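Researcher: Hi, I'm a grad student and pretty new to this. My advisor asked me to get structures for two proteins we've been looking at. I'm not sure of the right format, so I'll just paste the first sequence and hope you can take it from there.
Model: That works fine. Here's the first sequence with its structure tokens right after it:
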Amino acid sequence: MKRFAGKVALVTGGRTGIGQAIARRLSAERARVLTAQRRQDAEFEGIVADFTEPACPGQVVETVIARAGQLDVLVNNVGMIQEARVEEMSLEDWQRSLALNLTAPFLTIQAALPHLRDTRGSIVNTGSIEGLRSNPEHAAYAASKAGLHGLTRAVAVDHGAEGVRCNAVAPGWIDTDLNRDFIKGMHDPEGVPPRARPHPPGGADRNAGGGCHPRRLSRRRRSRLHYRTGLHRGWRANDKAKPSVSTTPPI
């Protein structure tokens, strides 16, 4: 497949896990892929970046334009989880989670928009099912991902008419380093039943939200812009009705 031939994609947090799977799929369909994260990426064109620093997102986008001359696809995937009950979480940890999971995508989108308007490009935000409901001790993570879903809606409303599409995916349990560490820290990690274990990041189970893959959402499929989280069937920027909840994968 060569659906992304001639396109340039930036995947934040693209060195491992979900981001790496997204980067590999885009590359397989002939996109030029650049990734940005704390460590250098040996597989793709990596940009070393600390997205907790407010100046970082703008610098990353400037680097992409300097290297590739354009930007067609932005995947905001970088993120973190800090575990603590609400009354036990420090303000510093709370702010750090929101800085990486919500403020960094906002600043990256803000810096990328002029270039995405030029290419009539696409933004895909990696949200989470925890943006719709929360697991124990995940207050900051759940709040930041719910905020990211809201930001996705806002970008759709503000910039859809300019030709910039903005979508979100809401992954569940995915087999990444982050979730492996989470399971290891459980009281009885061996007792986790097979059906509750993480899915492979490449999306081997096509019935488990395969229709919501960021590669699909980044393609120009419709003239109207849609907001997706994987559980929301759809909400168009020019619709007055609220999104309806459905398990039907978006098309």
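Researcher: Oh nice, that was easy. Here's the second one.
Model: And its structure:
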Amino acid sequence: MATHWTLEDLYRGIMQSWIVLVGTIVLFTVAGVGVFLIYPQKYTAEAQHTVEPISVLSSGSSFNTVNMETERVVATSTSVLTRAVEGLDDTTVEGLRANTTIEVPRNSQVLLFQVTANTPDLAAERANALATAYGEQRTENARSVVEQTTEELSVSIQQLQTLAESQAPGSSERAATELQLQALLDQQARLTATPFYSGTLVTPADAPQQSNRPSILVFVAAGLFLGILVGAIAALIASRVRSGPGSAYKRAKPEGAPNEAPPLPDGAEAPGPTEEDDSIGEPSGTDDGTPGPVSATHRR
């Protein structure tokens, strides 16, 4: 028959081996402190870089907004990381990418470069290097776009000038061509004269003062919790093992079974049967000699 455990039974079982419980709690608490001491410390530094429209590109209009999700991906591109790694020691493109997180504050045109490293100075150095590399790469891309656009405009202007020279002076065709030519010249002048501003490193990263390692209280609390849990189980097991088969695992005595006589001292003899015991099971008779009824014991 299955044994039903109650809270009182569990409490008694644990209290019978409370030393095991206390020892386990102390052991796990000390282990938590040990894990805290050997837990690797990481430091995260953050640099902030603004993202501005690069320049006037076409039709005299400028881009007032920037696709920040695109810039977020560009910030960790291989070209940017390669440029950053060139000025750093003991790191690779993949290593820098794995320890870099790019955040974009909501409704802003700012990139947050968060770089994690083993030391505070190294984290700050890598964050600033990556943000600077991003700005340089974006400036170089902007310059390439402006130069390419200027060259394309120069080609179109040259073609219109050649076409205008071939047309009759004072004709409507030449007047229309000269209007187109003047529009391209104005666009080229604006593109060349307007300085582009791709953004800047507004907040360089400083060496962080605290590491990413959790507080020692977290490790101690975890050790206490595991110690109580494992210690309670160990205490219950110890209580059952200590009680042995004569207690917890002993089969219950059947109801109605005769009580066993206590053990006799050495050299003592067991008492013999009494007259009352001899009379049990013998047939009884009447005074006139006729046999009486046989008892149930004798009949068996």
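Researcher: Is there anything I should tell my advisor about the second?
Model: You could mention this: The first helix runs from residue 7 to 16.
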